[in-house]
Amino acid sequence: xxxxxDERMIQxxxxxxxxxxxxxxxxxxxxxxxxxxxxxxxxxxxYLGTELLMKALDKKVLLNPENRYETTEDLxxxxxxxxxxxxxxxxxxRQLNLLIYYAAxxxxxxxEFSVTARTQEDNIKDALAKVFELSQIAxxxxxxxxxxxxxxDTVFLDLxxxxxxxxxxxxxxxxxxxxxxxxxTVQENFPPIIQARFLIDSKAxxxxxxxxxxxxxxxxxxxx
Length: 224
Hints:
Layout: H1 2-13, H2 28-59, H3 72-87, E1 95-104, E2 107-116, H4 120-134, E3 145-151, E4 154-159, H5 162-189, E5 195-200, E6 217-218
Parallel strand pairs: 4-5
Antiparallel strand pairs: 1-2, 3-4, 5-6
């Protein structure tokens, strides 16, 4: 009897096993809103911090108010000042000295010509405008060099149809001198260009004119 009573006492003293409560899962919407709140808070703090930093720099070190342009009038004044500086050959504007070849009667002469250094395409336009002017070509001002682009050692010159009319008017001999002047000018001033192809109104030229514009034009090599 005492042994049974001892067993009952031991069973009473043993703690009952705890029941594990099921874990509650956080709703997805609550997680999403929490993360969104954190992201928005970081964004706001970053924006405010950047604004305060820029104001501090504006007053002290980096941002000089004298070099800041806040209105349209300021930008217009800056543009006008830059144009005057370029026109006057101011400091920082590099000049490019070109040797222009042009047809003079039955020979080809050359003359020096200085232009503001820009892209190669723009300077080629400047150079050829001077070639037409010095060659005393009638209606040279009506000849438009629409586009200039280069592929390796070949330059493509896209001219208006007035160029073909001019060649037909001056005849074959003067046209040959004019084309030679064009090719020699671009070859000697704009390496690595050694030859030229002509386009008329962005299309391949038609054959049958006083000179053949469909072929590649280049100066003969020294070996030939």
